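cache lookup: miss for this entity combination. No prior model stored, computing from scratch. Input as submitted by user K.M.:
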Amino acid sequence: MTGSPQPSTRSNARVIAWCLAGVVGMFGFGFALVPLYEVFCDITGINGKTGGRYESSVPLERDESRIVEVQFLAQNGPDMPWVFKPVTRSIEVHPGEPTTVVFYAENPTAKAMVGQAVPSLAPAEGTLYFHKTECFCFNQQTLQAGETVQMPLVFIVDKALPEHIHKLTLSYTLYDQSVMGEVSRIKQAITTTNRNG
Amino acid sequence: MSAVIDTHAGEHHHGPAKGITRWLFTTNHKDIGTMYLVFSFAMFLFGGSMAMVIRAELFQPGLQIVDPEFFNQMTTMHGLIMVFGAVMPAFVGLANWMLPMMVGAPDMALPRMNNWSFWLLPCAFLILASTLFMSGGAPNFGWTFYAPLSTTYGPPSTTFFIFAVHIMGISSIMGAINVIATILNLRAPGMTLMKMPLFVWTWLITAFLLIAVMPVLAGVVTMMLMDINFGTSFFDASGGGDPVLFQHVFWFFGHPEVYIMILPAFGAVSHIIPAFSRKPLFGYASMVYAVGAIALLSFVVWAHHMFTVGIPIAGQLFFMYATMLIAVPTGVKVFNWVATMFRGALTFEAPMLFAVAFVILFTIGGFSGLMLAIAPADFQYHDTYFVVAHFHYVLVPGAIFGIFASAYFWLPKWTGHMYDETLAKTHFWLSFIGMNLAFFPMHFLGLAGMPRRIPDYALQFADFNMVSSIGAFMFGATQLLFLLIVVKCIRGGEQAPAKPWEGAEGLEWTLPSPPPYHSFQTPPEVK
């Protein structure tokens, strides 16, 4: 203890400050990974999540020489009682050609419910080349008790789809969002009331 | 007579306080180091007893001893307790004891924080252990707690688990800050960075790893907490989240974490092998750079744990090659240890036995790691017993044997007594045989397709599983012998000289055994 604790107290404070800055920074980095991951996946399409509404200024050319098979799957998330299935299970398309398929959904319960479909495309390599100009997955679906609905999906397979891909599988998982839908409806009602009042 | 009393009154603060308050309020690096080591050994036995439950259930095919549900809790808690409760605190304990003595300091740089960081640990593990008695049981989703198993499907006790992880994370971070401050600020005059003993070097790098990744672990469990309790959707696909994101964030922490558990052992072995070879360490500078390279590479290989979740081919190749690159600096270290022993005047006391076994068996674990790094092969090995064999080969003869080697090496210094060499050698051989008997057959089981984390298995795996269980019981029971040896050594035994090992080098051996309560009152001069 006869050493020189005085100067080291100051440098200790500096070390602590730097280390704490590192800790806070890395804690933040952990959370920053969430949007980074999102952006990375948007750019590369590696998680198979197809993008939002596709708008093209130039009409896409059809590639008559090539045929791509597109398969459709539908499944329910946990505790989702709806009947949910593709009307067309599989279809052969030419790249560049807008195609419409229909999914069927039915709410067999005795109460109104809200569903949200989340897409996933395999192989993930094809994600960036699968464009949707119209999709039921862009919005939440509200079905009254016993109501059925035919939900359209309009898609275009890009001509630039890598040569070795001959088949794309688009899978939708339908999640029960009734509680969340309720919350957002109430929120909306509150804001509307506030605005009006 | 009065003169004697006066001198003592003048020299206050030189001995420990008496009774329980000595341990509760201590700021002394040796007391805290001892508490860390005792705590980690207690956790080692606690987590080990869970391993015994697992091996008892797997002794024969079929379900006979525990429910599958409880089996899952055992595998989860065994992993969590061994990683966070046994291995990590043991290395912090060794750091507490040895760093001040190795760099020529009186104590750690931040003694009060040191006390706090230790006492958080029992709190964290009390919370974690209490989940075993909660309704719904303890965490049952594996030590990697993948979402949505741990979020949507986790038991109610998951929130307690998250809180425990937060507390132990804070404890580790404070321990790491303390280590960095001690090493950077309290080195004896003349001890430049490249003259630091290797244990000091490896701990410095480990501390930086801890500061870099423990906050990420805290972040990922915080996201879980919010998903479970506050309705966010970080990992919930229905809300726009992605469960795969969990694996990325977790393994960004998880891969450096495995180096946190092995680097200090590298350092300790780099002291022990030269001491019993009676030669200086071969390639000191390359050892330092190798550890640095391993630490840096550990940040860019995390996705090799996730080859099967669906990564584009370019990503698989990158993570595969980056992972294999780690074999280069690790190979440098192994060859340096062998070169140190080459033409040395070798003797095989217990620390050396454990150190040599460390080099050989850790290398086996490294090789199975290389096999797992090959992405196409990993599709076959993933989630089989081959993985279990691999990481037990790097953690048991790696981390645990490294800790035993260190304990025997420095026990005479700590206690002032020599330990019982015959018993220690018995401990080594029983551990060595038990460990290999337990884990080597797991390679074959895994290659034949036995999945991990399942309480039952197909009949053709029965023989190897029985061998494995017998080995595990042998290894487990042997550890009680270690307890006996340490207790015996603390209570008495042949008086240890300041330097009990002929070939040992370092400042710690210039202090008497046992060392004074405050290690270096005046800093030693390092030439």
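stored under new cache key. Helices of chain A lie at 5-44, 178-196.
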